[in-house]
Amino acid sequence: MKQNRCKIIGITGGIASGKSTVSDILRKKGYTVIDADDISRKVTDIGESAYEKIHEYFGDDILRKDLSIDRKKLGSIIFGDEEKRKKLNEMVHPEVYKKMIQEIRINAQRDEIIFLDIPLLIEEIENSKKYGIEYDEIWLVFVSEKEQRERLMMRDKISSEEAEKRIKSQMSMDFKRKYATRLIDNQYGKEHLTKIVEKLVKSL
């Protein structure tokens, strides 16, 4: 996909590291942020092709009373089973990339920079290339593992053991650092984080 008109910057990080906060800061400054999680929710809505595949594979247990997918239940299944997690990704990710590329093409008509908020950006970097997305930069948001675990426990109201399981299911932060163009330390509060993001944006 031709990206001559704008820069594509990927934002990623470990679970509960503050990646979404960085995206919110950028949105408030008027930048376009395409969120893979938002798209993932849309492509798994009732009636969408990914919904049918997920329902068929995982069964009725992952559905709410209104028949929508209970993402929390589904998450508790896949974080404990690598094979099922891989299967879910195979169902959802192609649909997410298709929608993402559509949004890039629409926004590239007017924007000089587009940010892509993708939790598994580095894990899926080869798939990104396969679908035609090339990153000019990758911004990696991180906190200490202790901070990450505490934030995750508070956010999702889960035990320390469950939080640890979810963190360990992802690629290590040390490995991710090798792919990052910029590192964003999010251990000192939102005000500090905002200053870092402002500085990075000015450098583009």
Figure out the total of helices: 10
Reported by name, the CATH topology of the domain at 7-41 and 96-202 is Rossmann fold
CATH class of the domain at 7-41 and 96-202: Alpha Beta
Helix content: 40-55%
| H/E series | EHEHHHHEHEHHHEH
State the CATH architecture of the domain at 7-41 and 96-202.
3-Layer(aba) Sandwich
Cα Rg: 17 Å
Q: Total number of β-strand segments?
A: 5
CATH homologous superfamily grouping of the domain at 7-41 and 96-202 = P-loop containing nucleotide triphosphate hydrolases
In short:
It comes from Acidilutibacter cellobiosedens. Catalyzes the phosphorylation of the 3'-hydroxyl group of dephosphocoenzyme A to form coenzyme A. This protein has ten helices and five strands.
Written overview of the protein:
The chain is an alpha/beta fold and 204 residues long. The chain has a domain at 7-41 and 96-202: 3-Layer(aba) Sandwich (Rossmann fold). The chain is 52% helix and 13% strand. It is built from 10 helices and 5 strands; from the N terminus they run βαβααααβαβαααβα. It has helices at 19-28, 36-43, 49-58, 71-78, 82-107, 125-130, 145-156, 160-168, 173-177, 190-202, and strands at residues 7-13, 32-35, 113-117, 137-142, 182-185. Strands 2-3-1-4-5 form a 5-stranded parallel beta sheet, with helices on both faces. Helix 7 packs across helix 8 (160-168). It is globular. The mean pLDDT is 93. Keywords: ATP-binding, Coenzyme A biosynthesis, Cytoplasm, Kinase, Nucleotide-binding, Transferase. It catalyses: 3'-dephospho-CoA + ATP = ADP + CoA + H(+). InterPro entries: Depp_CoAkinase, P-loop_NTPase.
